[in-house]
Design brief:
The complex is a heterodimer of chains A (414) and B (237). Chain A has 414 residues and is an alpha+beta fold. Chain A contains 15 helices and eleven strands. The longest helix of chain A has 33 residues, at 280-312. Chain B contains seven helices and ten strands. Classes of the chains: A alpha+beta (414), B alpha/beta (237).
Chain lengths: 414, 237
């Protein structure tokens, strides 16, 4: 215990050096935590699930995907050839599907203020809590879905919106607000933006990647596009299915692609993998070059600081040996100092990243992923990364301290 | 006369530099009796500090034997020597070598941390040692807040706190002004007299040596004069 106190006090011997070393580890652990957060999320998104497998329907020949909604109806409507074939697949349930249309809006009529922009997924309201990753169990009694269809304030059918708290804050709205917005992604038959009216009827969970998200009733979009004779009427961007097993998903994809040549069906993980394919080398580089480099830099920083410390304290180490400290105790003293810096800086590095991203609202947006929440495991990664690099970095200086010879340090022949 | 507590028998110590052998101590024998206060004197390079280090178990002789009490120090491993030093040797350095981050109390407590003592026993011993050197009012001062003389007194308290068999001092007054040096030497005399501690001190200073009971002179690694009768002529009295 007293040795620990001495280790702790030694940290304050050269405050500037300790602080700089700790800051370097702190910063690098924060970067490491962010990288690991993104990599872990993408890996889990690309990993095939064993049950409740999500499949995604997209147009085969065009990116971004936009296909005729009748394809989805053929898949789910009883009596169609495709549906008849699909019904024979064990684990296929036509009810477990939804459709998505991505719609961009602005509150600024001049369309210049980027802060007034928001993007919305037009979908089937009752499927939001069933088919959306990260919103499983949301709206269990369907009350919010019903409000989306029958908003209480405006009384206009289907104009209800569900919006994440961060998005609401950004555009200065709150639940109950009724407002007008202009579609920037969908145009009328003259190519003009379409004004629409909305009422926010509920809030998406804040501590999720939907904190900036927004859902609208697809029926409202269909109605408006039909009225405006938009050429986007009757089109959807994506279709989603959930099957019980990977085998059911594979069988379903086989049937759909066999009968409906214009669309493509693949598991969500495959779709994400395909989407991220061009970045594969980049991810490889990040994982196997950047992350190890961070560790090497941290190790070198610790090794440098502790080596200087040992060189400066050779006399003191010799004195400890004179007092009776053995080699192991000296090793513990030096190693302990490095480990303590690593542990403290690593813990703060990951804890602060966790807090900044999850609580303080500083996001890491990459591609179409608006936010990567730092998982609680990161609170363990940081200290471990700090400890590991501190251990490796301090080991050689500690071994050199351990082998300090008293007579060499006080070498004088008198 | 008391029995010898330190027996240095035909000790030879040499270092090698490349192919060259440098003899530092040559066939040196010396007995130090329990409770004695011995000064090792001699010109630079005569081997005083080397002899002191060998007796204190900080180094091992190339040839010969060194006994301290019933322990054959010269044959111990480094690990055994470290353990042995904790219990048997109190070392006083010329430049005090206190740990700057620790208070006087904590510096004196350091050697006790290596012994199986309760916190209260440690506290008792530390307070006693600091009281003996007259620093009861400086317990929580750091070395930087103490004068050179006071730091050396903390060093002495650290040396005696484990109640060692032998106290070795390497020019303990070498860094002090005359007044502080005199106080330190008086303190060493007092420890030797009242606690019956055996003290071996390396010094260049004839005045310091006069405070001891016996003066041993070395030259070129050999014992050239052993003023064992010094005590009877009034030394250290």
């Amino acid at each position: 215990m007293k040795l620990l106190v001495l280790i702790f006090k030694n940290l304050f011997r050269n405050k500037v050096r300790s602080a700089l070393t700790a800051m370097s580890i702190f910063f690098l652990v924060a970067v490491f935590t962010m990288i690991m957060t993104v990599l872990r999320f993408l890996e889990s998104a690309m990993a095939d699930k064993e049950k409740d497998v999500k499949s995604i329907i997209t147009e085969r020949y065009r990116i971004p995907s936009r296909f005729d909604r009748r394809y989805m109806e053929e898949i789910v409507s009883p009596g169609s050839t495709v549906n008849d074939q699909l019904e024979e697949i064990d684990g296929f349930d036509p009810q477990l599907h939804t459709i998505w249309n991505f719609v961009g809006f602005t509150l600024d009529e001049t369309m210049k203020d980027k802060d007034k922009l928001f993007f919305c997924i037009a979908t089937l309201p009752e499927k939001i809590g069933v088919m959306t990753d990260g919103l499983e169990g949301f709206d269990p009694d369907g009350r919010l879905a019903e409000l989306m269809r029958k908003p209480p304030r405006s009384g206009i059918d289907n104009i209800g919106l569900l919006m994440g708290p961060e998005r609401m804050q950004k555009i200065g709205k709150r639940v109950g607000d009724v407002f007008k917005a202009i579609s920037i992604s969908h145009r009328d038959s003259f190519g003009q933006p379409i004004p629409m009216e909305f009422e926010i009827v509920g809030e998406l969970p804040g501590a999720s990647r939907w904190a900036q998200g927004c859902f609208m009733d697809i029926e409202y979009l269909d109605r408006v596009l039909k009225d405006k004779k938009s050429d986007q009427d009757g089109k959807v961007n994506l279709g989603w299915f959930q099957t019980a097993t990977p085998q059911a998903a594979a069988n379903m994809a086989g049937v759909i692609e066999n009968y409906l040549n214009d669309i493509k069906c693949e598991t969500a993980s495959s779709a994400v993998s395909r989407f991220l394919e061009p970045f594969k080398d980049l991810f490889w580089g990040v994982k196997y070059l950047l992350v190890p480099s961070i560790f090497v830099v941290m190790t070198v920083i610790v090794a440098n600081a502790i080596s200087i410390t040992v060189r400066e304290r050779r006399k003191e180490i010799a004195v400890l040996k004179v007092l009776g400290f053995n080699a192991r105790q000296v090793l513990t003293l030096v190693l302990g100092e490095g480990l303590l810096i690593g542990l403290i800086a690593g813990s703060f590095g990951s804890a602060l990243t966790f807090f900044m991203v999850n609580a303080a609202g500083i996001k890491i947006p990459i591609g179409f992923f608006p936010v990567f929440y730092v998982p609680p495991e990161a609170l363990v990664w940081g200290p471990l990364a700090g400890l590991f690099t501190a251990f490796v970095g301090s080991l050689f200086p500690a071994l050199s301290a351990r082998s300090v010879k008293v007579v060499d340090v006080f070498s004088k022949v008198t | 006369m008391s029995r010898p507590i330190v027996r240095v028998q035909h000790v030879h110590k040499y270092f090698t530099r490349g192919s060259e052998q440098i003899d530092v101590l040559m066939d040196l024998s010396l007995d130090v009796e329990e409770g004695d206060f011995v000064s090792l004197m001699g010109p630079s390079g005569s081997g005083k500090t080397t002899l002191l280090n060998l007796i204190a178990g900080l180094d091992t002789p190339s040839e010969g034997e060194i006994w301290v009490g019933d322990d054959l120090v010269s044959s111990m491993t480094e690990e055994e020597l470290a353990r042995w030093r904790t219990r048997n040797i109190g070392f006083i350095f010329q430049f005090y070598h206190l740990l700057p981050v620790l208070t006087a109390y904590e510096n004196v407590e350091m050697p006790l941390l290596l012994l199986p003592l309760s916190a209260s026993a440690r506290r008792r011993q530390v307070l006693t040692a600091l009281e003996l050197v007259g620093l009861s009012d400086r317990l929580w001062h750091r070395p930087g807040q103490l004068s050179g003389g006071q730091q050396q007194r903390v060093g002495i308290a650290r040396a005696i706190v484990t109640d060692p068999t032998l106290i070795v001092a390497d020019e303990p007054t070498g860094d002090l002004d005359a007044k502080s040096a005199d106080e330190i030497l008086r303190l060493l005399n007092e420890l030797q007299r009242s606690l019956r501690k055996t003290i071996i001190m390396v010094t260049h200073d004839p005045h310091a040596a006069e405070r001891s009971r016996r003066i041993v002179r070395l030259e070129k690694g050999r014992l050239v004069e052993d003023d064992a009768a010094f005590a009877s002529l009034g030394g250290a009295s």
